[in-house]
Amino acid sequence: MVEDIMQSAEERMNKAIDSLENAFGNVRTGRANAMVLDRVRVNYYGVPTPVNQMAAIKTPDAHMLVIEPWDKGTLGGIEKAIAESNIGITPNNDGSCIRLAFPQLTEERRLELVKDCKTYAEEARVAIRNARRDANAAVEAEVKNEGLPEDEQRRAEAAIQKLTDSYVAKVEEHFKKKEAEVMAI
Predict the structure, then answer these.
(1) Does pTM top 0.85 for this prediction?
(2) Residue 25: left if φ>0, alpha if ψ -120 to 50, beta else—which one?
(3) Where does this polypeptide localize (predicted)?
(4) Quick check: 175 and 118 in contact, CB under 8 A?
(5) Most buried of 28, 36, 128, 132 (most Cβ within 10 A)?
């Protein structure tokens, strides 16, 4: 029973880390990153299709993405979808591919992005602490309903706290890494 509670809490904590990584992937750092296109959907024969399933995405240098569609007829649709997606980059269509130039970020913009990253990290910490709270409540329910011994309850709560601390440390590690990436010129 306690193992199931621990496993469930760990799964929720993993989901919080995955969500954090996804949020960090969408933060523009001034470097070309194909993940900014993950949310962009192109209307391809009536089906909203991700850009990465319609084209090769290349990074010839640190500040440029080149999108080469496999079907050249979709070039206009991809350009339109990127322009409407609010990623903050204007697509440049040269007839055979689309170029996305990532401008250098100002110091002020970098600080705003770090603040956004702090918010994402705090949301992940809250999700992890919520998983801990729910796991501890489930252990207490086991004590009341199933007659789990109190020393077993204390061991389970200590293990849950140790798991929580390790995941909060992972969040901090991810945040420090992203902060350094955003602040790098």
Answers:
(1) no
(2) alpha
(3) Cytoplasm
(4) yes
(5) 128
Place of tokens 């969408």: 26
Whole-angstrom CA distances from 35 to 24, 26, 180 are: 10, 6, 18
| Tokens 């309850």 belong to residue | 153
Identify whether the C-beta of residue 128 lies closer than 8 Å to the C-beta of residue 136.
Answer: no
